[in-house]
Amino acid sequence: MRITRVLSTTLLAFGLAAAPAAADSTPSASPSEDGSAPTTAGTSFRTATEVDQGQTATASGSAGDYLYWSFPADAGQRPTVTAKVKLPEEHAGQTWQVDVYDGLRRRQACQYGAQTRTAASGTASLELACVLRTVRAWSEPWADDPLPGTYYVRLTALGLKTADLGLPVGAELRVGSKDMGGAAAVDGSLAEPLVPGIAVKSSAEDEGEDGDGDDSSASAVLSSIEPDDGWSSGWWTDRWVWTGIGGVLAALAGIGGYALTRGPGRPRQVPPGA
């Protein structure tokens, strides 16, 4: 009975500790309410408009333009990119596509989602979606796995007819993510996230500590976005909790096995030397 009580108390304690870890698997926060969401889009990787996860960015452009945005994604997250294109009242059939690239500008495949869709003539709008693979904290150099850092979104129309080139269009982009928890944890991590200008920033910080640097080098940093809790904030996962529970259960099993196999011991009425 004593072992049972100890086991129940231990499991209850670890269950309470696991609750925050389980809560981390919920989707990201709701859109920003402070009106700071971007209203423009870039035209290249270098001019991509920065968007935080949870924001809904908007932009106006012309059919045939390339629209670029960028957002941060950290280890353990599974980003979801959704885009809505508002088409002019009169247009021919149009095919639109959304592509996502990582910090090394490698095109990332979508696990699922309507990445490419065709709008029939007269259609007012269409929606696209791309659910990426889970971002890994570390990967082999030859692998194409998503890694922590900046991700780029490109929205464009494919094979437009001449009559549709230059027609005004509107676009809405939203980026969210789901924390996959300990199931996506790996051994190892990157020295720095794949963010444009991170090497320049690190170099400037090192020179500043030595007193040999100046503030002008900080202006060379090309990206200022990062997760709300900082990079690699997901070092704590529910894998630690379940590993601890397994260790406690193994110890209790050893104690219980010893208690069952050692026997009742020497009876009181039998002298030690007998």
UniProtKB/TrEMBL annotation:
Segments crossing the lipid bilayer: 240-260
Stretches for region Disordered: 22-58, 202-229
Signal sequence extent: 1-23
Record's compositionally biased regions (Low complexity): 22-32
Record's compositionally biased regions (Acidic residues): 205-215
Coiled coil: none
Stretches with biased composition (Polar residues): 37-58
Keyword field: Membrane, Signal, Transmembrane, Transmembrane helix
Name of the protein in its database record: Secreted protein
Organism: Streptomyces galilaeus
